[in-house]
Amino acid sequence: MRHATLYHKAWLGLGGNLGPVEENFRYALQNLAKNAACRIKAVSSLYRTQAWGKENQPDFLNACIMLETALTPQALLQVCLRLEREKKRERIEKWGPRSLDIDILFYEGYTSGGSDNNTLVLPHLYSAERPFTVIPLAEISPDLSLDGINFRQRAAVMRKNGQSRTVRKIAKSAYWYKL
């Protein structure tokens, strides 16, 4: 008797500001789509954003995706780290430039707290604070909620207080990646 595979929703944030970033995003999404344990369900528009954390560097491209996965959070993290390495991601300085960054922002039914760089923290510590994650998440999963506030509401607050000015939509999802 075959058992049904249990899939969980996961939300990933993509970012980069070195090299052919849009091409690197497509590479990551194509590889995730080829993985039998992953099914991409939604892809946000592509956004150009000002650097966050370390601001004296080129603008970033950012996007978010929602997928269903049979991978554990830790196994999904290993897949993301492998894709980053394949696109020559170098971890030289915190918040520094990068060719491809893939963050697990949320994983359905899973929360964890860790305080060091070797521990997966979910939800991602800054997922509700950074306009470059809030705006794309509001686009693909407006009702996704953290601490009782959904991302539609979070994006509206950021637009009202001017935080969203650092994020510019440059391509709708249908134009930069087709599911």
Runs with pLDDT <50, length 5+? none
Total beta strand runs: 8
Classify the beta-strand content into a percent band: 25-35%
- CATH topology assignment: Alpha-Beta Plaits
Share of helix, binned:
25-40%
Query: What sequence of helices (H) and strands (E) makes up the elements?
Result: EHEEEHEHEEHEH
Radius of gyration: 16 Å
Shape field: globular
Find the structural class using helix and strand composition: alpha+beta
Largest sheet: 6 strands, antiparallel
Between the first and last Cα atoms, what is the distance in angstroms? 32 Å
**So what's the CATH class?**
Alpha Beta
Number of helices: 5
Descriptive overview:
The protein is an alpha+beta fold and 179 residues long. The chain has a single domain, classed as 7,8-Dihydro-6-hydroxymethylpterin-pyrophosphokinase HPPK (Alpha-Beta Plaits, 2-Layer Sandwich). Helix content is 30%, strand content 25%. It contains 5 helices and 8 strands. The strands form 2 sheets. Strands 1, 2, 3, 4, 5 and 8 form a 6-stranded antiparallel β-sheet that branches. A two-stranded antiparallel ribbon has the order 6-7. β6 (145-146) and β7 (149-150) form a beta hairpin. α3 (131-140) packs across α4 (151-161). It starts with 7 loop residues before the first strand and ends with a helix.
Characteristics of this structure?
single chain, 179 residues, alpha+beta, Alpha-Beta Plaits, six-stranded antiparallel beta sheet, two-stranded antiparallel sheet, 5 helices, 8 strands, 30% helix, globular
Short description:
The protein has 179 residues and is α+β, with helices and mostly antiparallel strands. It is built from five helices and eight strands, in the order E-H-E-E-E-H-E-H-E-E-H-E-H.
